[in-house]
Amino acid sequence: MTDLADRIIDHYERHAAAWDVDRNREGAWQEKPWHDRFIASLPKAAIVLDIGCGSGAPVARHLVDHGLMVTGIDSSPRFIDLCRQRLPGHEFLVRDMRSLQLDCRFDGVLAWDSFFHLTPDDQRRMFDVFARHAAPSGVLMFNTGTDHGEAIGEYRGDPLYHASLSGDEYRNLLAESGFDIIDHVVEDRQTGGGRTVWLARCMAKP
C-alpha cells in the first residue's frame, strides 16, 4: 500500500477543484463544533498552524473569521493558490508536512483530515513536527482512525490511502512529545461527522 500513500500529493493536486466544491457543499461541514472548541481553547488573536489546510475553506476561513492569524501548509500548489485567493493577509505555503521546519511556534496546531493519509511510520514521526511547532500551552487537534492498520478509500473514482495507529500508541506518542490530552472521542457521530478526534495541550517548558 506504500505506493498508494506516495500518490496522495498527486491525488489532491488532480482533484483540488472537485474536492473544494464537495467540501463546501451545504451540510458537508459536520465537524464544525470541534473547530469551535479548538478556537475557544486559544487566546484571542492566536496564531494557528493549519497542517494540510486544503483549499482554506471551510476551516481556515472559519479561524480567520474569529480573528486568528493562520499559517497554512499543504503539498498541493492548487490548494495553496485557492487559500491565497480566499485569505490574503495570511501565510500559505507549499510544504510536505513530514519535513516541516518553520522558524516559529504556534498557539494552535491543527492537522484535520490530513494526518491520516500518512503511513504509520510517518505518523509516528509527525509528533516531533507537532512538538517542534507548538508553543508552550499550545493546543493540538487532529483526527485519526480507530485502530492500527491501513485502509483504501475512494474519491472521484481514484483509490485514496488512509492509515491509523492504535489509540494506545497515539496516547503514548502525545505523552512522549509533551502533550496532555484534553479530550478524545472515538467515531464522534454527533459533532464530528464520525471522526475520531484528539484534542491536546502542549505542556512542554519553553
UniProtKB/TrEMBL annotation:
GO biological process, one term: methylation
GO molecular function terms attached to this record: methyltransferase activity
Protein name as catalogued: Methyltransferase domain-containing protein
Signal peptide positions (record): none
Methyltransferase domain residues: 48-138
Source taxonomy: Bacteria, Pseudomonadati, Pseudomonadota, Alphaproteobacteria, Acetobacterales
InterPro entries, per database record: Methyltransf_25, SAM-dependent_MTases_sf
Highest taxon above the source species: Bacteria
Protein keywords: Methyltransferase, Transferase
Pfam families for this protein: Methyltransf_25 (PF13649)
